[in-house]
Design brief:
This protein has 526 residues and is α/β, with parallel strands linked by helices. It is 51% helix and 17% strand. The chain has 14 helices and 14 strands. It has a five-stranded mixed beta barrel. A five-stranded parallel sheet has the order 7-6-8-9-10, sandwiched between helices.
Length: 526
């Protein structure tokens, strides 16, 4: 029966949602059945039910996969994020979310995924440069005055950090807003870390004593910005200690290796940054009490020891009386002893004074003057001779410096020539690579355009379908079609205007029937 001869006034069957869902399910299960799919494992989730949910992906598409509890128990190899595997199972649909999925009952490893392989290669290269060495990591300050936080200002991460710092020990916090996902993540995070280090101590904006780089959890693709080389180098070069708090406890990025300390969560990073003020106050009070108690006990012990020793010494007068008696005895003998000593010294001095005369002193002074004049005459030429020797040494040193300067200029000219040659080689390689890259992009664009034309609705019209339109758009039911003043039917080779009549029959002349082409049954395309 021709489409225009449909007396019911409808050009399509009205399916229920369950009928459509069941039909799609039967088509997918009947067309594919049991299949083997190779791809990289995305995020893996395993709730308390024991079922395992994960993604299989390549560089363009993602397929949802699920393994039931019994299938998971029989697996010899369980899929992990980043693994490249071959999953065996059957295709089906999940009507609750209008999606198709792969029920996997066996997983075979097929090598590491592309992202994980790239990540491991980058980790080894940066580790070889010493960026992850434990010896270069700086200690975290015990109580920083200013804390810089590099994260998104609109997420829950910054609220968790600020709330935890306020609970433990309120500090001055500087927030450097960045994108924590996407192409802008890596350059913004690297710029933030270097920006905090560039702040001058004592300036208008205080320089942080500690930096926290934080982000919530996510897949390896979401966290990839923190695996970029620019971010790793910025964190490794930071003069300010850095705590990495990227993702959850099971997430690991290259920034975690380069940071001075890694926190499993952003909240844990805040706990590492500052101590608990209430605990410090309690500890200080306890220490003060213990110190006072120890000091009091020490004084009591010393006082008791002093009293015990005092009882063993006896009366002080008994100790000083013998010394006082000896002093009185020597005091009586001191006066006569001094007078006797003066008389003996005078007796020895008198003969010596008789031997000394003014002439003898003048002769002694004259001899010493001659010796001084001789030493002065010998000393006068010495500075001039030292000056001549210094001048000769300076001249020789100047000749050696001139020769060294000439050698340095020659070496610099040779290095400049070598650098120019290397630059010319790199420029030639760049000119050769650009045409090939442009040609590859042009071929890819042509393939995508051919795919667009193949998947367009005009190709579907060529298989015998048609589109019915009214003044308000596409018509999908008989009741709506009867109310339209005019209809337009689009076929693969043109359009036909139709004016609905009484009883739903069209008044326009019927087009010549064409022999239906092999393919799906004819009807309207919505």
């Amino acid at each position: 029966m021709d489409l225009l001869d449909d007396e019911s006034g409808s050009n399509a069957h009205d399916y229920t949602v369950s009928e459509i869902s069941g039909a799609v399910k039967r088509v997918i299960e009947g067309e594919f059945g049991r299949v083997r799919v190779r791809g990289e494992v995305g995020r893996v989730s395993m709730p308390r039910s024991g079922h395992m949910y994960f993604d299989l992906k390549d560089d363009r598409s993602v397929i949802a996969a699920v393994s039931w509890k019994g299938q998971v128990a029989k697996m010899q190899v369980r899929p992990e994020e980043g693994m490249e595997v071959i999953a065996t199972g059957r295709m089906t649909t999940f009507a609750g979310q209008s999606k198709y999925q792969l029920i996997v009952d066996n997983v075979e490893p097929a090598g590491a995924g592309a992202l994980m392989a790239m990540l491991e290669a980058r980790r080894k290269a940066l580790a070889a440069e010493g960026l992850f060495d434990a010896g270069r990591k700086k200690p975290i300050p015990w109580l920083p005055q200013v804390i810089g936080v590099v994260t998104s200002p609109s997420g829950a991460v910054i609220r968790d950090i600020l709330h935890r710092l306020a609970d433990r020990f309120p500090r001055h916090v500087l927030i450097w807003p960045v994108a924590v996902q996407g192409q802008a993540c890596a350059p913004e995070v690297a710029r933030a870390v270097r920006g905090f280090n560039a702040l001058a101590p004592g300036g208008e904006i205080p320089r942080p004593d500690l930096i926290i780089v934080a982000r919530g959890g996510g897949s390896i693709e979401d966290l990839w910005g923190f695996n970029e080389e620019a971010v790793v180098r910025a964190v490794a070069e930071s003069d300010i200690p850095v705590i990495s708090a990227v993702g959850h406890e099971t997430d690991t990025t290259l920034v975690d290796h380069a940071a001075d300390r890694r926190a499993p969560t952003p909240t844990a990073a805040a706990e590492m940054a500052v101590p608990v003020r209430a605990e410090l106050a309690a500890w200080l009070s306890e220490a003060q009490t213990r110190m006072m108690r120890a000091a009091r006990g020490r004084l009591d012990q010393r006082g008791q020891r002093l009293r015990d020793l005092a009882r063993g010494l006896g009366r002080p007068e008994a100790l000083t009386q013998p010394a006082r008696q000896s002093f009185d005895l020597w005091a009586e003998r001191l006066g006569p002893a001094l007078r006797t000593l003066v008389l003996r010294k005078n007796t020895r001095f008198a003969p010596l004074a008789a031997q000394i005369s003014p002439n003898l002193l003048r002769r002694f002074i004259r001899d010493r003057s001659r010796e001084i004049d001789g030493l002065s005459a010998r000393l006068a030429p010495a500075p001039a001779a030292r000056m001549r020797r210094a001048t000769q040494d300076h001249t020789q040193l100047a000749r050696r410096l001139d020769a060294a300067r000439v050698r340095m200029i020659g070496d610099a000219q040779r290095r400049n020539r070598d650098g120019a040659e290397r630059l010319a080689g790199l420029e030639a390689r760049l000119e050769r690579s650009l045409p090939a890259r442009l040609e590859a992009q042009r071929e890819r664009l042509e393939r995508l355009d051919r795919m667009r034309q193949t998947l367009g609705y005009t190709e579907t019209l060529k298989r015998g379908y048609a589109v019915v339109r009214g003044p308000d758009g596409v018509v999908t039911s008989q009741g709506v079609a009867e109310k339209q003043p005019g209809l337009e039917i689009e076929f693969a080779d043109g359009k036909l205007a139709v004016i609905p009549g009484g009883g739903g029959s069209a008044t326009a002349p019927k087009p010549k029937k064409k022999k239906p082409e092999p393919g799906p049954s004819q009807g309207s395309l919505f």
